[in-house]
From TrEMBL:
Name of protein: Probable S-adenosylmethionine-dependent methyltransferase PrmC
Protein family (similarity comment): Belongs to the eukaryotic/archaeal PrmC-related family.
SUPFAM superfamilies: S-adenosyl-L-methionine-dependent methyltransferases
NCBIfam families: hemK_rel_arch (TIGR00537), PRK14968.1-1 (NF011527)
Record InterPro entries: DNA_methylase_N6_adenine_CS, Euk-Arch_PrmC-MTase, Methyltransf_25, PrmC-related, SAM-dependent_MTases_sf
UniProt record, GO biological process: methylation
Entry EC no(s): 2.1.1.-
Gene3D superfamilies recorded: Vaccinia Virus protein VP39 (3.40.50.150)
A GO term for molecular function: S-adenosylmethionine-dependent methyltransferase activity
Domain Methyltransferase: from-to ranges: 36-99
Keyword entries, A-Z: Methyltransferase, S-adenosyl-L-methionine, Transferase
Amino acid sequence: MTLEDRREMPTVYEPAEDSRLLADTAVERVDGGVALEVGVGFGYVAAQVASATETRVVGCDINPEACVRAREAGIETVRSNLTDPFAADSFDVVLFNPPYLPTPPEEEWDDPLEHALSGGEDGRRVIRPFLDDLGRVLRPAGRCLLLVSSLTDIDAVVKLAADAGFESREVAEESFPFERLVVLEITHANS
């Protein structure tokens, strides 16, 4: 691929079926408080929640172009790696449609869009550190809506959440010929 070809490729993940499923689920299940959308991209999910509910929504993304796009959509956005810059107990709700496509190392590319798509070899490379820090930023009665794919092994994600001190349950799903998308509602264990 030439540099010219790369310039023609999108640099921010375009909202698709997974984004719509997470947005629809969040609009149905979230109303009030403060929410964070991790990996905000164009701001589609955050904007849907902000406009349809009484929730204050902020976003974050590692991709600077995504931050610009989300701000253009009216979403207060911070450039960050996952939840790193946020204070403890900051959010009632955390929303995340992580990069989940299993990608062998030889197929990885150095491109901003890769951060939105590639989940590493097992599809869980970004989910692990996210779940490890989620408990710090999520308020005690808070919850997370995490979109996952059957390509990443949903049971393995549920186990990672349990290992991080959370309970998970499926609250929405959509099936396609090549994968099943699920929204997990994740809460602190014993909350």
